[in-house]
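Q: what does this look like with magnesium ion bound?
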Amino acid sequence: MMSNIDFKEWFISNYKTFEKSLNGEKTTSFHQIRKEALSKFSEMNLPTTKDEEWKYTNISPIIKHNFSVIPHKADLSTEEVNNFLFDKLEHHLLVFVNGEFRNDLSRLNDLPSSVEVGSLSDAIKKNHPALMKHFGKYAEDSHNLFTALNSAYTKDGAFVFVPKGKIVEEPIHIIFINKTTQDKFVTQPRNLFIAEDNSKVTVIEHYTSIGDGVYLNNTVTEMFVGENANLDHIKLQEESKKSFHISRMEVDQERSSNFSSHLISTGAEFSRNEFTTRFNGEGGESMLNGLFMIDDEQFFDAHTMIDHAKPYCNSYEHYKGILQDKARGVFNGKVMVRPDAQKTNAFQENNSILLSDDAVMNSKPQLEIFADDVKCSHGATVGKLDEEAKFYLKTRGIGEEAATAMLIHAFASDVIKSIRIEALRDYLEEIISKRFNQ
Amino acid sequence: MLLEIKNLHARIEGNEILKGINLKVDAGEVHAIMGPNGSGKSTLASVLAGREEYEVTEGEIWYNGKNLLELSPEDRAREGVFLAFQYPVEIPGVSNTNLLKTAVNEIRKYRGEEELDAMEFLELLKEKSKLVELDQKFLSRSVNEGFSGGEKKRNEIFQMAVLNPKLAILDETDSGLDIDALRIVANGVNKLRSKDNAIIVVTHYQRLLNYIVPDYVHVLYQGKIVKSGGKELALELEEKGYDWVKNNKAEVTV
Ligand SMILES: Nc1ncnc2c1ncn2[C@@H]1O[C@H](COP(=O)(O)OP(=O)(O)O)[C@@H](O)[C@H]1O
Ligand SMILES: [Mg+2]
């Protein structure tokens, strides 16, 4: 194999190839945003383990690759997509294959008038006012090399726009399928979910793959939750064990808004999730729950930040990890309570179970409190399955595998129970059963 | 012979706790094992159930024609051995129903029987919960989580009723029970007695034996059975206290 070009160099020198693929769109004002992002990208350094935020997260396995910036087009049938749907769930479906929106595989049920669910590329073409208003405002390019890279290469992703007072009853299921070949490639979905004042919507962001080739998924999702609005977000990641996943999720919460999220993952080879929600008005509620299950030599990193910038907001965060074999996990959860965020309630908890002696979990809860009239708590545990409980189950005739599966179900149950979509809860229960009770 | 323990020696963390136990139990019999704290009663129960921390250094256990020590804890249970724990474990997130459903079906599968369907299973639970007067609401609760001491013990006997073992070992099931609960539990156990199964009642006090009347009483002291007799032995013990056994140890072990 030829020696590889430096990761940054590669994306800078291949930018022309990317621009060509935009089909003349590069004269638009949106392209200006991309180009600014590219120049920010070229000025930043790649993070190393010397950076505090990357202490346990070594990106060298990723940056040694040169990923094709234009993924190959892949054939995909409806049947292949159906494998990733949840049983018995009425939903709106958006499908992206190797980064590109596939209208032929997507289907929308009836939506309330003026609600828009579609591709970001469409929104860009239309110069959608909501896009111009929100894009890049929450996930800023400065200080984040991967976000800048995503912005520079923004081409497609999901765009959900729920105007004031509109309620979308059925969840929007967005599936990103990467179908691999020999060719290593990068996909950079860029998503924007806007729930304006008094609106309500549920979005499932689902990353998955077919084949076990190498790719990098560098995703950015921005979410806006307007006054009194309700956004229920689920991210489900179940990718090939040779893939890399870097993701940034940024949420802006206005007054009395309600954001609830679940980050559910069976990982990739490498996954980094940066997740920030910011209270930009009083009376907001936020729930960040997570569950990851990794094995072999998988690496998973959840970096969350709950920014209590305003008073009278409540946040609840509970992340759980189940690690087997030589898997490694990182949880870094920051809760920031700024000086005027009085009457803040913040609860944070991280529990992990190591099913082998070689699995490693680094858990770092961080509370930074600058207001005095607040209620905050945090805790972290890393342990093994309760052997006493397992023995008890065995004495009732339950075998090793079934007993393990039961205890893992039990461990995961409070996070799973908090998911509002029954079909998804069932899906997760099944994942656990399959993994631990063949 | 349902159970035959021959010269059983067992240790934990280097300490020898059981020092040559001999015991024969036939189907249809109820045996009581009594003895002061620390004499090894729970150790014996644990070894029978297959707790791995205990190392058997000498001796044999034959159960229903099988070498019990070669069976995993789950296979012992599937063969009909049941231990009611002295300290039942709390398992948050696993409901009683779920535990029993999995247990019943794993046991049935092992025996080559059809799994019970949801209806049959619920019927079974309903019927057996009456036996120990266990409120239905306990079924959906997590195993033993937040149960009072008495509720935990009652739950153990409820599980026994559902699993219908051939050999049940009840480890201090009476401790923590008030007199009413004791009567309910004992009643439940008595209803489960049959000519096909055997029960080993491990207890510290004679009290329980007023309700569950044993065929044989054994006194365990310092890892050995130092005295065996009929049900009157329990009364004698009650009257004279354990010092009586302790002082007579040299004499009775010969
Ligand atoms: N894990 C252990 N390590 C060392 N000694 C133990 C352990 N568990 C029990 N023992 C000892 O074994 C002896 C018997 O205990 P146990 O069987 O619980 O007695 P009983 O049930 O008759 O009260 C006691 O002296 C106790 O201290
Ligand atoms: Mg004991």
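Chain B touches chain A through 33 residues (CB under 8 Å). The first strand of chain B starts at residue 3 and ends at 12.
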